[in-house]
TrEMBL record:
Region described as Disordered: spans on this chain: 197-245
Protein name in UniProt: Cohesin domain-containing protein
Biased composition (Polar residues): 208-242
Transmembrane spans: 6-27, 253-275
Keywords: Membrane, Transmembrane, Transmembrane helix
Amino acid sequence: MPVKKIAVALVIILVAVGGFAAGLILLRERQDLREKASTPTGTTEVSISPETGSYEIGESIETTIYFNPAGIAISGVAVRLMYPFSGGTPEVSVENIEINSTLLATGDWTCPTQDSTQQGESVIIDIACANTSASGFSASENTLLANVNLKVNRPPAVNPITLRFDAASSVITRKTDNQDILLIPSSTGVYTIGEAEVTPTSPPEATLTPTGTLVATRTPTPTSRLTVTPTSTISATPTVTSKGGEELPDAGISYPTIMGIVIGILMIGGALILIL
């Protein structure tokens, strides 16, 4: 077999192996992007308000979710909040999620994800919005993202309950390169749930009748009632894609990478046939 033919085949094999290795590296980097959602070196923040509070059975816990772009132009915000529950249904359920109407009124924001689900022993709240303007959105102060109201149905097994961000599923993406710049969230909402108040029964009052007989009378007291609202759950997978084609970070397999790997394998096979 000519030496030149062998040399060409070896070059083809080396190029194919290099392409195969590069494809695996790129694929791994795309998967790591999702795993490293919030970052300790991030500059933007998200927060919950109020951070503490005490509530009775039947009351609503009215919380607000904020994001702060820290003066950086951003292309999207996606947050996941969670809190524990026990039993067949949550002691505290999600009553409603309302996106900031001021953001939506600009026409530059779209918020397709505003859902609550139950996963294991946690209630999950997903909110995701994308900014579709060419320049992105920028602000240097806390900006209202959404209002989330929770309904207290019964005393929770774990009291107080803690509403917190899931750092692995919360991101704020920079407009220039679509990279996540969210600082790992530290803000939480800690809410104490008290028992429903019951009015004590008043003692009998003695009255003297004209005949001189004492008659005991009891003043009726209102009966306390507990109202339990059924839990409503909405199941959806949070995915945000802007009108301009920008996509918030997500894990997945790159089809161009797969094609590169397949082509590399075919090149190696062709080179081996050429040598033989």
